[in-house]
Every structure is written in C-alpha cells, then in structure tokens.
Amino acid sequence: MIELADIHKSFGPLEVLRGVSLTVGAGEVICIIGPSGSGKSTLLRCINHLEVPNRGTIRVAGEAVYYDVVDGARRPHAKRRIADVRAKLGMVFQSFNLFPHLTALENIIEAPVHVRRMTKEAATAKALQLMRRVGLEDKADYYPEEMSGGQQQRTAIARALAMDPTAMLFDEPTSALDPELVHEVLEVMRQLRDDGMTMIIVTHEMNFARQVANRVLFMDRGVIVEEDTPANLLGSPREPRTRAFLKNVLDR
Amino acid sequence: MLDKIAALFDFRGSVEYLPDLFYGAVVSVELTFCVMVIGLVAGLIIALMRISRSRLLRILSTTYVECIRGTPCLLQLFYIYFVLPAFGIRFDPFMAGVTGLAVNYSAYLSEVYRAGILAVPRGQLEASQALGMSRRLMMRLIILPQAIRVVVPPLGNYFISLFKDTALCSVIGIQELLFKGTIISARTFQYFTIYTLTGILYFSVGYPAALFVRWLERISSRGYSRRKRI
C-alpha cells in the first residue's frame, strides 16, 4: 500500500532522516514511537509531501508519487497529480488545524465540495454521517473554538475521512489533548482500525499502540532502530536504545 | 485689542461661505472613496504578487512598494500631474489626484494585506494542502477569509488617514475642502473663521469614521462563534 525506500531528509546541516525504508500493507496499522527529534513526524510528513525528502522514493499503491527519479535526477509530478495523491492520504495533525472561520460541518465539506466537486447536498449528507461516526452529530454548526480539543480532533478525523482516503496518517493526534479527552480520540481510531483502514500513527500512547498496532516501529536519530509486533517490541525489546527509551516512558 | 479678538470670533460673516466649503468636503469624500476602491483592489494584487512563487513578480512588486514608500506622496502627485504630460500622459486634476493617491495607498495597503496573510498560522496551509487543495483554492477558501478579518481595522485606519491626505490634492488644483478654504480665506482675509470651519468640516467626517473603525476593531477581535440565537 505505502512503500518508502531509503528516505533521507536534512534541514540545513541537521540530518533528520538517514535512510528509512518501510512497507505498509493494506489494512495494516503501524505505530511509530521514539524520542522527540528522532524524525518520526518528519517521516510522516514526507509521506504526505509536507516535507520533500532529499533522497529516496515513495510509492503509494505501487506507483511512485510526487516525483520520478530519472537517471538520478528528480522530476516533480504535476501539481494536480500531487494534490490527488495527498487528498487520498488523510492527515491528522497534533494541533488539529481545523479552519477556525468555518463550522465543524463546513470544515468537513470544504474539500469534497471544492476539490472533489461534490454537490453541497451530497457532501453535507456524507459529512453528517461521518460526524455521527465520530460521535459529534450534534456539533455540526459549532465553530472549532467552541469545541473541546477532543471534539476538534474528532472533527479533523472526519474532515480527513470525507475525502475517502486509502490510508490515514496521524501525527501525535492526542499529544495536545487534556488527558481525560485522549480516550475519545483513540476510540475513534480504534473503530477505524476495525473498519480496515490503513493507518500510520506517530504516538506516545504505548497502551494504545499495544492494543491496536500490527507493528510498532522504534525510531531514533533518523533511523528505524527496531520494528516488531507490539507485544515483542514493547514487552521485550532487543535493542538497548529501545529498552532505554521504553524504560523512561513507561516509568513515568 | 480685546474687541479685535472678539471680532475674530464673529462667524456671522463667514456663514455665507459654508455651502462652498461643504461642496469642497463632498469632493474630498469622493476622492477618498475612489482612491480607496482602487487601493483596496490594487493593494491585494500587489500583496499576492509579493508572496508569489514567481521571482519576477516578487521583484517587481517589492520594487514598486519600496519606491513608493521611500518618496513623499506630494512628490508622486507632482510627478503624475506635471511630469507625465511631458510623455503625453495627461490627466485632469481629479484623475491625477485619484491616480497619485491610489499609487501611494496601494503600496501601503499591500503591506497591510501581506502582514494579514502571513499572520495565518502555517498549520492552516498544511491542512489545506493535505486535503488536496491547490494554492489558488487554499488562498481563496482558507487564507484570505482569515486574513481579511485581521486586516479590517488597519485598513479602516488607512481609510481615515486617506481622507485627510486628500488635502494634498489642493496643490494640483482639485477643488476639495482645503483648496476651498484657502481660496475663500485669501479672498476675504477671514483666515481664522474660514480655516476653523474647514477644520470642523474635516473633523465632522473624520471623527465619526474613527468611531466606526473602533467598532470594527471590536467586532473583529471577537472569536469565531455562532451568533446567539433567540
């Protein structure tokens, strides 16, 4: 479904990703954990073209996306083609990034109406169905700042789902939430897993990763240090770096 | 001495000039609206050029803005009214005034727009792009609607200062309020009363406008929320 090969990314002299390869199958749920600055968010952002890797290729559904590499030179795809791929990869941000000047419902129908050219009626019907699915059927005409963080994040998930994504990317979706609101967002993500959605999740929620992920990746200093089933990686990590990180996180 | 000063405060002799002054004030207001409409549109276009990805558009717009901001408005008016005719471009005074002030204000207004656009958080751009929006769509649906709200109060303030700056046009012979005041007071030697009336007329437009802008500021600092339904 999604294949990353040898992704490198530097910001100036700082090498954030140093050759990351990853294959995610359809319906698979991958959790990426690791200390801050390990490159896990950057990796996720590369998949959605919010960052452009310096080297390496990304394939979605078997096709090279965003650019082709011909004889070592990179040829970017047409903007339209890039936008189409991005729309198919739902992205959920740590800080929600809902559009503050639009109601919850308008947030959700904005892209289907203007990017996919759906009729407003069809998009609204679909949006209301999605809002029911994330438990916000009564919040359609609320503005983002009138909602709690958990409600905002669930709206953001519905907004991404409205584009019928083939995979969902979550960048620390619960890190900005009050602790008592975390579970409502995780519950929605759990449902998505049950519906067979392909998901890549950057998270600090170890229990969630344990329960939901098919595979957990531990990243540190721009590489994948270790990847395994959640039981193995979180229960009996092989690498000393993984062990040290988990010890710090789990001892809190 | 005292009776001389008292005589200064006798406005009875100048009331007959009020209609003429009032007509000048109307011209000032007309100038203001013409310039503002052009300035608001041109300013937005220049602002979009300044943040464009095209290097050429950026260089052109930045040069324009810096040249205009670096020279006096009065000189720009002289240039358009007295210099351009040498190149066969001739304006009547009113058109020259509108053009000159519009050139000047579009540069300043573009900076206001630009600041407003840059004030929209980066996450908004990223969310739009992640949803597959083109740059154009993102500007129209997400960035500009949020930026407009930020820029309305400063634009309002420019509107007021523009009204006062129309007085500059008196030097190229537009019969606006200050021009009228100058002509009448020179003819009648009633400098004190005529210029005072002129000031009162400016103030009676400018002050309500300032109050209006203050109200706009209050509105735009409110959050986005549902209006209270009764």
Structure description:
The complex is a heterodimer of chains A (252) and B (230). Chain A has helices spanning 40-47, 79-88, 104-114, 120-133, 149-161, 182-194, 206-212, 230-235, 240-250, and strands at 2-11, 14-24, 29-33, 55-60, 63-64, 67-70, 73-76, 89-92, 167-171, 198-202, 215-220, 223-228. With 252 residues, chain A is α/β, with parallel strands linked by helices. In chain A, α3 packs across α4 and α3 runs parallel beside α5 (149-161). The two termini of chain A are 36 Å apart. The mean pLDDT of chain A is 93. By secondary structure, chain B is mainly alpha-helical. Chain B contains nine helices and no strands. Chain B has helices spanning 2-8, 18-50, 55-69, 73-83, 93-118, 122-130, 135-165, 177-188, 191-221. The longest helix of chain B has 33 residues, at 18-50. Classes of the chains: A alpha/beta (252), B mainly alpha (230). Chain A binds chain B through residues 48-50, 79-80, 83-84, 86-91, 93, 95, 97-101, 103, 110-111, 114-115, 141-146, 156, 159-160, 163, and chain B through 121, 123-124, 126-127, 129-135, 137, 141-142, 145-146, 149, 223-226.
Number of strands of chain A: 12
Largest sheet of chain B: none
Mean pLDDT of chain B: 91
What's the assembly state of these chains? heterodimer
Helix content of chain B: over 70%
How many DSSP-defined strands of chain B? 0
How many whole angstroms does the radius of gyration of chain A measure? 18 Å
What spatial form of chain B do the alpha-carbon principal axes imply?
A: flat
Backbone structural class of chain B? mainly alpha
Low-confidence parts of chain A: none
Distance between the termini of chain B: 66 Å
Main-sheet strand order of chain A equals 8-9-10-3-11-12
Average pLDDT for all residues of chain A: 93
> Main β-sheet of chain A, in a few words?
6 strands, mixed
What is the tally of helical segments of chain A?
9
Largest protein interface, residues of each chain: A-B, 35 and 22 residues
Question: How much strand of chain A?
Answer: 25-35%
Output the helix-strand order of chain B.
Answer: HHHHHHHHH
